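note to self: dont lose this again. the chain is below, predicted strucutre after it. 279 aa total, dont forget to put it in the shared folder this time
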Amino acid sequence: MASQLPLATPQITRQSFVCLYKLRPVVRRKPYAAYPSRTFTNTPKPSAIAAPEIDFSKSSLPPPSPKYTRIIPASPSYFTGKPDFTDSLLTLQALLRKHQTLPTLTAAQAPRVAWRTLAQYRLIVGEPIKASKYRKIIEVLQRLNRIHPALMPEEVTQEMEIYKRDVDPHANVRRPQLIDEFGRAFGSGRRKASTAKVFLVEGEGEVLVNGKSLNHAFARIHDRESAIWALKATGRVDKYNIWALVYGGGLTGQAESITLAVARALMVHEPELKPALRR
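---
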């Protein structure tokens, strides 16, 4: 039956396409010469209005128009989020650049100063300053405080007085740590966002971190060695037991916070090890 169907000729195929798609007729445009000619007119433009000439022979100029005047901020940091803090930091940094070539003392030889706390500084500037921002000011102040006292500029002294507390810095004496009735010494340490509390007692070298063994608490060998570095550096790994509580941060930060806590607890048992632990 398929052989009896008529074959489609090119003429039939073309007609079917015309019927199906209804081809749009071709529109012939007029030649360019058939359009009406365009005419141009020389319309005079209005002349520009210039400002009146300034007479410099007069002692005073006319007052400016209120339409174009605006108040100039007193501080270049006015448009920042925290202008008072920014001004304080820029002033201290400018003083540091100006006097950075003066002789300095070491951090241990510099005069002891009690700087204002973050809460006190917030009350002075009236701005919600973050701790990381205020730490930048403290770092610059500590650097300025290391300038030799005999060569300390007067402007630096006056600027640092703003940030000093009205207390005797030598009156703050750290309370000595003691060994309790169970033979334990307490030490605490921080690293980044991690905080560790350690109890060190004489024993056989057992370590518990949050109730887990050292191998279960830290999978990396580097973290395990960091946690007990104070005992390893002094050759006392098998002489003390460690019971640590640590929270916050990552595993590496927790291990390094335990390092500092163990070192502080070890100095309670044996204060003569401080030079060895500082290396």
